[in-house]
Design goal:
Arc Repressor Mutant, subunit A; 3-stranded antiparallel sheet; 5 strands; 47% helix; globular
Length: 88
């Protein structure tokens, strides 16, 4: 899988209290991500592969790899549906 990154135009975000709040200016929508979503969001802001995203979750939360990949796949699917990702 090619590295993915957050779309760098039209998206403004900040991290507060371990969570992410974002504004998609193109869709005029606010988004929020919990602690695990915030880890993925931060990692995607620099560009990352699926494996790197899963590693970020396993190292931060101590979850098993299978759960991490399932969480990554769900999060990435949601961001893709909102057109917030691009290939790095």
């Amino acid at each position: 899988m090619k590295p993915l990154r957050l779309r760098d135009t039209g998206v403004t975000w900040l991290e507060t209290d371990g969570e992410v709040v974002a504004l998609d200016a193109f869709a005029s929508k606010y988004l929020a991500a919990n602690a695990s979503g915030a880890v993925l969001w931060r990692t995607l802001s620099d560009g990352a592969t699926r494996a790197e995203l899963a590693e970020a979750l396993t190292s931060t939360f101590g979850i098993d790899e299978e759960t991490a990949f399932a969480d990554v796949d769900g999060f990435v699917a949601e961001l893709r549906a909102r057109r917030l990702l691009e290939e790095a």
